[in-house]
Amino acid sequence: MSTNSSKQLHVLISCGELSGEKYAAELLINLRQQIPNIKVSALCGDLLVSHGAIRIAHYREISVMGFSAVFQSLPQILKARSQLKSFLSDNEVDLFIPVDFPGFNSSLSKHAHKNGIPVYSVVAPQLWAWGAWRIGALRKSVDRLLALLPFEEKYFANNNIPVVHLGHPLVDVYDSELLYEKRKNREYNLKHKKEFKIGLLPGSRKQEIQLLLPVFIDICEQMKNTQPDCKYEFQISCAAVHLTPLFASLPDYIKLSQQPISEFINDLDYAVVCSGTASLEVALAGLGHSITYKTSPFNYWLGSKLVNSEFIGLANLVMKQNMVAEFVQDEACADAVVNEYTKWMQNSAKRSKFDSDIDQLHNKLGVPGFWQRVASDVVKFLDDVEVL
């Protein structure tokens, strides 16, 4: 494909939530360096629009998780899906890029594929954990699958899915060369400081926040009383502006932050994190933390029957070990998390083992330059399918 082609490439990107939109924005920035006149339409929030995308629909109404929440939002989900399918059919789209959010994007990918539109899928669905029966449908609906976790490439290749693994995007954000200085500073602080800053990351979905917020507040209350001679500052992360009303009843001593996670965690001494990409970010930053996750009793029961994975934390999955403590459902309580935090503070051998694991994690996830590599792979893919 000639990047100087007079034909304008029209790409439709589908993002179901903020984390995927951040990935899409990075990809778009790097694609424009190789295809300057690219036209992008999208299911997105405000971020992609700020990068020149034309929004077809907002993901606000469909960014839900859990079976009951999906059922309640079904009319909005079906409306958005129908709107995007019509757009794929009627607007001469050259390439469809679904970003994560497989429950919503899978039928769009199938529709695009049936209509002869190439599909470059960003972020492989976690079929190795649950939903392996969907592998046949995936095989029929994607032309190239971008896997972010190293073990995924072998899994999908063994299932005859055209897959590529180019590293992980978070390696660009969290430089492994800076970890040594951070560790020295952390150890010094643990020995000399009497004021500690604790970060709380309850996720980016409404249902996650509603269920975890009471647990996080209990953790803060108990942590304040653990070491009476220490002072604590608590900050809770909420990068999505439309979710801030959920935090209206926060105690005064817990401050709400809308910083990007990379900035939010920069000067923390410890963190309590919902599972997901945020847990991997905190790990790559070398910050001590616990993973705390809770869902509705029905969702948890059903998930326990379907999920085939020993861990929920991405770092634990990559490392194939419990390098970060996980507290799920009934175990997600203040007593367990504060006890883990106390062990972390008091046990230098535990912290040293964590540091060694983080170094290995960085090595497994690749080198910087991820989105440049992905953009080049998209261009190569377009050459292969002779779009331009």
Q: Could you explain the architecture of this structure?
A:
With 388 residues, the chain is an alpha/beta fold. The chain has two domains: 10-167 and 367-384, Rossmann fold (3-Layer(aba) Sandwich); 175-365, Rossmann fold (3-Layer(aba) Sandwich). 47% of the residues lie in helices and 16% in strands. It contains 17 helices and 13 strands. Strands 10-9-8-11-12-13 form a six-stranded parallel β-sheet, sandwiched between helices. It has a four-stranded parallel β-sheet with strand order 3-2-1-4, with helices on both faces. The chain has a three-stranded parallel β-sheet with strand order 5-6-7. Helix 10 links the parallel strand 8 and strand 9 (231-237). Helix 1 crosses helix 17.
Question: Would you summarize the structure shown here?
Answer:
With 388 residues, this protein is α/β, with parallel strands linked by helices.
Any descriptors?
16% strand; 17 helices; Rossmann fold; 388 residues; alpha/beta; 2 domains; globular; 4-stranded parallel beta sheet
